[in-house]
Design a protein that fits this description.
The protein is an alpha+beta fold. The chain contains 4 helices and 8 strands, in the order ββααβββαβαββ. 27% of the residues lie in helices and 31% in strands. The protein has an 8-stranded mixed β-sheet with strand order 1-2-3-4-5-6-8-7, with helices on both faces.
Length: 180
């Protein structure tokens, strides 16, 4: 639990809030948008998680069965959570969320395997942090498996700092301006 860790005094960023459009390293046009809540968007997100590679699941999320996916999404898609989706055409290929936990927000990010390593995660997290900042979020934390060097490097590049390490996980923290 991050609650006892000290967050940096200075905010990281600034981060551009969504919508943003960019070309990934594979030449695909990707758009990152804030979650809008309509049914078509929700079904596209469910489809992404149904197709999600089980090897990329961490700490039991995302769930692997469609009914459990839908229940899980019910718990993270409403207020006060912040969510952004990465789209390639009419398909959701990435999702990042900030979920409240005491006085901070936990960050989780998921990108379909076929889209990993193309720079999408960086844009997705930065857009999420910009969205969170706009919504008044000030403190963000995450856990990552210490052996996942690509993810740790990504989080450090974006501005996260290591706050603690327990067993096989690193805890990382970041402060946002939160009053944009």
């Amino acid at each position: 639990m991050i609650g006892g860790h000290r967050y940096p005094d200075e905010p990281a960023g600034p981060y551009e809030p969504p919508p943003i459009t960019f070309e990934d390293r594979e030449g695909r046009r990707i758009e990152v948008r804030a979650h809008c809540g309509d049914d078509a968007e929700r079904e596209a997100l469910v489809d992404m998680y149904v197709a999600f590679d089980p090897a990329d699941r961490a700490q039991g999320i995302p769930p692997s069965e469609e009914g459990r996916i839908r229940s899980w999404l019910d718990s993270i898609l409403g207020d006060p959570c912040c969510n952004v989706l990465a789209w390639h055409g009419d398909r959701v290929i990435g999702h990042a969320t900030l979920v409240p936990d005491d006085d901070a927000y936990e960050l989780a990010i998921f990108v379909l395997q076929a889209y990993q390593g193309a720079g999408i995660g960086t844009h997705l997290i930065e857009a999420l942090l910009g969205h969170g900042e706009r919504e008044g979020v000030e403190k963000v934390w995450l856990t990552v498996e210490r052996w996942n060097r690509p993810a740790v490097g990504l989080y450090e590049k974006i501005g996260f700092e290591t706050a603690g390490s327990e067993s096989f996980e690193l805890e990382m923290v970041l402060r946002l301006d939160g009053d944009e």
